[in-house]
Amino acid sequence: MEFKEWFKEKVSIVDEYLGQIIEAKENPQKIIYQAVNYSLLSGGKRLRPVLFLGAYELFSDDLKKALPFACIMEMIHTYSLIHDDLPAMDNDDYRRGKLSNHKKFGEARAILAGDALLNKAFETGLDAAINFKGMNAIKALKLIADSSGTEGMIGGQVIDIDGENKISSIEDLKYMYSLKTGAIIKSSVTAGATLAGATENEIKLLENYAEKVGIAFQIMDDILDVTSTQEKLGKLIGSDAANNKTTYLTFKSIDEARKDVEKFTEEAIKSLSLFGNRAIYLIELAKYLTSREN
Amino acid sequence: MEFKEWFKEKVSIVDEYLGQIIEAKENPQKIIYQAVNYSLLSGGKRLRPVLFLGAYELFSDDLKKALPFACIMEMIHTYSLIHDDLPAMDNDDYRRGKLSNHKKFGEARAILAGDALLNKAFETGLDAAINFKGMNAIKALKLIADSSGTEGMIGGQVIDIDGENKISSIEDLKYMYSLKTGAIIKSSVTAGATLAGATENEIKLLENYAEKVGIAFQIMDDILDVTSTQEKLGKLIGSDAANNKTTYLTFKSIDEARKDVEKFTEEAIKSLSLFGNRAIYLIELAKYLTSREN
């Protein structure tokens, strides 16, 4: 199967699963289902679930078991975007080409929609763990939980909102990125492999792959914020500069940044050499992320 | 052991455990540990963890195993208070006798501190489940997760912020309460019993107890908001009226409300009759909640 076809197939099963996670019941709190689904089903790239499934597939064919866990990654990612866009945080009016959640539903509901999605991620994971049985599911879920907490995504967010004061070197920035976006990208891969029963050494190699992919991905984000168009990006361009954000381009030129993206991508691919041709889709995925336009 | 001594002992082990959940590491995101601990360690009543341990103790003496799960209840409760107090929500400046989290740390950090606490609750639970092994831990955790989501606490919050428009009868109000505060109180009891290996029938009886305790507790809250003092309550009194909140006293007089508290408390205690004298602390706990001043 061609990479593009593989990717499309994965996105398709992820989208289908996500579409039925929040059942829109007729009850007094139904607005929360609408607010959650508004952001969850707005056509994200589904990169994290696809990474999860790609890592899982190296060791197991039983994708049906992996799907709930893969989708958790998107739920956590989406909740973080909803809260990130809030006026008290980045104050972004657009996301994925639409009004951000709080512009559409109001701040209070957007806060609760984010809370609901994080909560639903664990409801989904625990439910799947009960069906799955065995400890691999719990271990995978624990990896995910750690990556979205204060030693992961939230830790990165906290540094990011204090940006200018806290980030004075490219090393500071890389630390922040390793938490804010890196941790979840990493756990997508390591939790996928863990769920499928990979060995510690295999997980270690994949972890290294994911770390390099994560930083390359984030640098690309910083480049695209400057070079892309609003139409392609689905949100206002130049928002980092408008928010006085410290980014990779605070320390490096666009050309240097592009070279670093290539370097990290090559290193990511090298980490997979042990897996040979089995890792073809993860290799192509790393390349795809480097060449993306949004 | 006297009830008061039993209660004090439980609060003490809960406080000790909560005190070491968030390790204050020296790292760039350390402000988030401070923000979380500011609210988590501000001397709450610890009612939910004590309910958890009380239900657990009916079936098992191994309290050490139960403690992490009991503390999750307080973490989820505290996160909900932090988000509830935000300007976009109830806009409360005081909580437990201190400035609310966002008044102390700013809105962005308060949002993240709440997120961090919810996340940390699941980190803690999954970690304990890995140590605990066996499915009871996962099932208990699933009960908790369900109770804090859109079919539980968050669902109740969503209705509450829309109060006047959504709540036009005492039945509407009771539905909202059963989600907003009732669901977590219920899962404290049912998850405690589940973790300890109670039978389905035993859990059913305890669920009934917790439902009655939950509504009695919430009516008391509404009464205290009118009759207590700021000193005793640790937050501004009359805040429900100031926020145009629909409460139990919208539909009933204070005297009627007090009678309902007594009625629900009696019903709660009746549900425990099968357990005989073993349930003495849960019985006393229900009475204590009725006579509290804050």
Describe, in short, the structure shown:
Helices cover 72% and strands 1% of the residues of chain A.
What are the key terms here?
homodimer; 294 residues; mainly alpha; two-stranded antiparallel ribbon; 2 strands; globular
Q: Explain this structure to me?
A:
Two copies of one chain form a homodimer. Chain A is built from 16 helices and two strands. The model of chain A has no long low-confidence stretch (mean pLDDT 93). Chain A has helices at 3-19, 30-40, 47-57, 63-84, 101-105, 107-132, 135-147, 153-161, 163-166, 170-195, 200-227, 230-233, 239-242, 248-251, 254-270, 280-291; strands at 94-95, 98-99. In chain A, β1 (94-95) and β2 form a beta hairpin. Helices cover 72% and strands 1% of the residues of chain A. In chain A, α8 (153-161) packs antiparallel against α10. At the A-B interface, α2, α6, α7, α8 and α10 of A face α2, α6, α7, α8 and α10 of B.
The profile of the biggest β sheet of chain A is: 2 strands, antiparallel
Oligomer: homodimer
Q: Which structural class matches the secondary elements of chain A?
A: mainly alpha
- The span between the termini of chain A is 24 Å
Instruction: Write out the strand line-up for the largest beta sheet of chain A, numbering strands in chain order.
Output: 1-2
Helix share bin of chain A = over 70%
Q: Averaged pLDDT of chain A, please? A: 93
Gyration radius of chain A, rounded: 18 Å
Which residues of chain A form runs of ≥5 with pLDDT under 50? none
Q: Tell me, what's the shape of chain A?
A: globular
Beta-strand content estimate of chain A: under 5%
Order of secondary-structure elements of chain A: HHHHEEHHHHHHHHHHHH
